[in-house]
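Hi,

Apologies if this is the wrong queue. I'm a grad student, and the batch job for Lysosome-associated membrane glycoprotein 1 from Globodera pallida produced an output file that my downstream script rejects. I'm not sure whether the problem is my script or the file. Here is the sequence I used:
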Amino acid sequence: MTSQGHGSSIFCGLALCSFALLVFCCGTAQSLLLGVRDHKQGNYCILLEANITGTVQYTDEENVSRSSNFTVPDSAPTETSYNAVRPSHCGKSHQQITIEFVPDGFNHTELEADHTWYLTLQFNSTGSLEQGSYSLSNYTLDVVFFEMQNASSHYNGSHTYTKAPSFKPEWNAAVQQGQPNAFTCSQNALHFVESSVTFQNLKVIAFANETKLEFKEGQITEPCLLDVRTSDLIPIIVGACLAGLVVIVLVAYLVGRARAKRQGYTSV
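Support response: The file is valid. Your script probably expects a header line. Output copied below for reference.
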């Protein structure tokens, strides 16, 4: 093998390793950023950034079990609903964010353009405002069925999906010296009775006091268990890539040496 071929092999190996790490570590979709503003102080107490998708299960008019996938669109209002059945609000020990959206994934008619769904997330705090923690305590999904879903009439056109009783959400973070940490996760699902909602590239903070609809620079975060395990895998992947490059270089050297010997014998 020539030095040019040798270099090409090494370059290809590096490129493959770099591509694998980029795919493994980085997300490409732009996330939706939402916030709940305290009307008295004007600051944001909850910030949530994520790509949100989900699945709802229901029974149609023929009594057949069906499921529909949906996406919370980028056009969802950034300041969440204060006028819903479960309105967004800030509080000292209890805070709530209600995301108002018309879901993507349905070919609805013009008359159904106001079929608004509401995803409500409730947070509770424990301990003091200076030193404690907060966690996601409950959540609901209010849906209005579209004509194409042909949902059974016993739903009366709408349904509220509630938290699965046995499911314990992982969303929680500490409050240190009055400053709450943010909870992050590359992918995390909330389970409802006959439904689920998945958050990708999730970053959320509650009981905050932010002046802008953005996470401040240097915000302390607490990753979910999935991401903790993933971060442990990165050194293994890097090591495997380096080991692979060593093998490529060694094989290239041995092949090149063997060819050089054969060419030497031929010239004699």
